[in-house]
Amino acid sequence: MIHFNHVSLKYDNKTTALRDINLHVESGEFVFIVGASGAGKSSIIKLLLRERVASGGSVTVNGINVSRLRQRQIPYYRRKLGVVFQDFRLIPEMTVYDNVAFSLRVTDTSNKFIRNRVPYILNLMGLAHKAKSYPNEISGGEQQRVALARALVNDPPIIIADEPTGNIDPELSYEIVELLQGINQCGTTVLMVTHEQEMVRRFGGRIVTIDSGQVVFDDVVPPDGRLAGVI
Questions:
Q1: DSSP string, 66-93
Q2: Is a pLDDT exceeding 70 seen at residue 17?
């Protein structure tokens, strides 16, 4: 599903962000991408979203060579990805309902489908009672759940969560990961990028550690696993 084959990335200032990365994520996997600030995690996200093009190697997602996409093809490619950001990126002038519905409206989805789909997703996220609220009227944890609902509403095969717990309390962080795990159990591939090593240790699973632009660890660990010096 997601294949990085000998991928390197250099920025315009000659900084090398990724060095000969090999990473393969199969359909239905849940993978934590872990690393300190500047390790290269964000560069992986940028390549997946086609915000950057690999300097070397290839990035393939769902059989699509992302580097070869033409500019006009990129928006259609991104519609097949559900993306959750650390800073929520909700539209403040829109209600919770409309923030989620917006992802469908931009793809010319019928109003009938939107009226059925959005309440279903909000209920799934425990947000049905907040449908008419605005982002500034709900908590940070609720805002992140709205962002997750928005990413999920198109039923994408892949969810990319970029530091989704960075702006919320630790207890709420666990709730968000549990929601992502529930989504994953329904068959959606989940790639979660984080620097929160303690949280990753608690949940376990497949963990990929990035350091200085390279994969230094890639294995499945049990919940509450302790791998000193690796994660």
A1: GGG--GGGHHHHHTTEEEEETT----TT
A2: yes
